[in-house]
Amino acid sequence: MPWPSRIVSGWARMLLVTFIGVWLLSALHLFSWFTLVLLYSGCLLLPWLQQHDWRVKKQLNLICHRVGFAVLDALDQGFLPKILQVVDRSWQAGKKQLAIAQQVIAIAFSQTILEVLLLTVILTFAVLLRFEHPLQELRLGNPDSYSILLATRQLIAGDWPGQIHSFPAFSTLASVLSLLGAIDAMQVIRFLGPLLGCLLVLSVGYGIGVISQHKTAAIGAMCSLGAYLFTSHRHIPEFAPIWLQQWLTTVTQSLNSSLIRQWAGDNLEIGVMFLVLGLGRGWEASKSKYRREALIDAVCCLTIVAIIKPTLLILAFIGGISFIGGGRLALTVVTISWIILALGFAFPENPLGWESTFLVTLPVGLSWLWGLVLIPSSWLLSLILGLWSEIICVILMLAIAINFLLPLSPKLSYLEYEMAARKTLELRVRFPIKRWVIVAPIEQLAESYGAGWYEDLGLFVEKYGSKVSKPDFHFRYSVPNLFIFVEKRPLVTGLSESQMLPYSVLSDPTYRNYRSSAGRASLQFTALQMCETYRHLHEQEVAIYYEDNDLRIYQVQLPEDL
C-alpha cells in the first residue's frame, strides 16, 4: 500500500476510535488521562494479540522466560557487556534505517525534484496563512471558537457539553490532546485549528490526485486552498437586480469570512476532510489491489462524516454513483454538485431550505474545480511543450495566484482584550481550583471553566449596583478571592450593528452588554464606578491585580466564613 494511503488509513481509524471511545468514556464518567492511555494501549495490543492467534497466556510465558534468561545471563556475565551489546544493536539498527531513508529521499528527489519544490511552496503558503494570527494572538479570532473551548473544558471536567446540535468532534479531539499532552485546552484549540486547516489542504490534494490520477490537478487544488485564492473585494454593480446583488453579497461575504476558518475551523472542517478522504479511498477500493483495506478506510471515513455532519453524505452518495463512469467524471459531477448546492443556499429566499453547510465549505469545492480546470489546460499545453506541459502549467498558475489572487488580511472581530485572555489563564495556574470567582464578559466563562467559578459582569452589576454604596455591604461568595474584569476603554468588537437585526437578537443580554458598542460602554462605565465605590469603602479588602491602558482587574479578598 502506498505511504499516503497508509497515513489516511491510520488517521481515519484512530480518529473513529477516539470519537467512539471518548463518547463512551464520557457517558460512563470515566473520561480521564488514565482511561485514555488504557484506550490507546488496548488499540495497540489488540492487533498484536491477533497476530499471535490470541494466545495471551503463551505469549506472556514466552516474555517472562526471555526476561528471566536475560536477567540470569546479565547476573552471570555482568550488566555492562549486556548494556554495550544493546547499545551496539540499537546503533546498527538506527544506521540501517537511516540508510534506507536516505535512499528513499534520494530516489524521490532525483525523479520529482520540481514536484517536491512546488509542494514545498504550497505548504509554505498554507502554513503561513494558517499560523500567522494564532502565533500573534492568544485570544481567539472567531466567536464560535469560544463555544468550542467551553465544550472542550466541559469534556475535560467530566461534563458532557449540553445544548449541542451535533457531535463535538473538534472539542473531543482537543480534549484528548489536552489531557495526553498536559496542555491547556485554549492553547490546544489555538493551534489545532490551523493544523487541521493544513491537513485539509493535503486531504484535498490526496482526494483529487488519487481519483483523477493527475498530479497537476492535485497540486493546483492544494495551491488554491492552501493560499486561499477565493476572496474578493470588488464592488457589486448597482444596476444589477436586487436579488442578484443580495445573492452575490451572500456568496462573497461567505467566501471572505471563510478565510478566518482556515485557522479557526471546527467540526465542519473535520467532516469535509474525511469526506474527500473517503471519496479517495472509495475510488481506490474499486481499483487498487488493497481493496479490503481501502473499503474499510472508506467506511471509517464516511462514518466519521455521518457522526459529524450527515448532510455531507449527499456528496458521498453522488460520488459513489458517479464512480461507474470513471474517476474524472465522478470528480466533475461531485464538484459541480457541491457548487450548485452552495450557490443554491445563497439565494435570498432559499426556496429549497438548504442549510449553510455547502456554502461554508464552498472553498473546498472551488479548489477541486481549480484542479479539474488544470487537467485540460495541461493537455492543451502538451501539444506545444510536450513532457514539460504539466510543470509549466503549475508554474504559470502559481505566478498568477501569487501576483493577483492572494487574500488580503481579514478584518478580525476580537471579542476581548489580549491581556484579558492571558490573565484568565494566569489565574487558572496561580490560584487553587474552585477557590476563586471571576466576574467578566461571557468569553471568560469558557476560559475559566473547570478551574474557577464565573459570574456574568452584567448580572453582577444588576445584582450589586445599588448596594455597593452602603458601608456595611460586603460581597458574599464561598471562596477567598473575587476577580472583577473591567475595561477602562471599552472594547470595540468590530461586529456590525445593523437596524435589520431581529428583536430577539437586540434584546439578548449578550448582544446588549457585549456586542453592542453603546451597551458595552455603558456596562463597563457602570462597573468601573461600582468597583471604585466599593474599593473606596473597603480599602483593606480590594487591590488592583492588574492594570494597563485598557483593562483593570480588581482582586477582592473575601472572608473565609462567608
Question: What does it look like?
Answer:
It is a single chain. The protein is mainly α and 562 residues long. It is 67% helix and 5% strand. The protein has helices at residues 3-27, 33-51, 56-77, 79-111, 113-136, 143-156, 169-181, 185-212, 215-226, 242-257, 267-287, 291-308, 313-322, 327-345, 357-360, 362-385, 389-405, 418-430, 443-448, 457-464, 503-506, 509-515, 517-537, and strands at 436-440, 453-456, 481-487, 542-547, 551-557. It has a 5-stranded mixed β-sheet, with helices on both faces. β1 (436-440), α19 (443-448) and β2 (453-456) form a beta-alpha-beta unit. The longest helix has 33 residues, at 79-111. It is globular, with a radius of gyration of 29 Å. It starts with a helix and ends in a 5-residue tail after the last strand.
Output mean pLDDT: 83
Helix-strand string: HHHHHHHHHHHHHHHHHHEHEHEHHHEE
Helix and strand composition category: mainly alpha
Main beta sheet strand tally, sense and closure: 5 strands, mixed
Helix coverage percent? 55-70%
Please state how the strands of the largest beta sheet are arranged side by side. 2-1-3-5-4
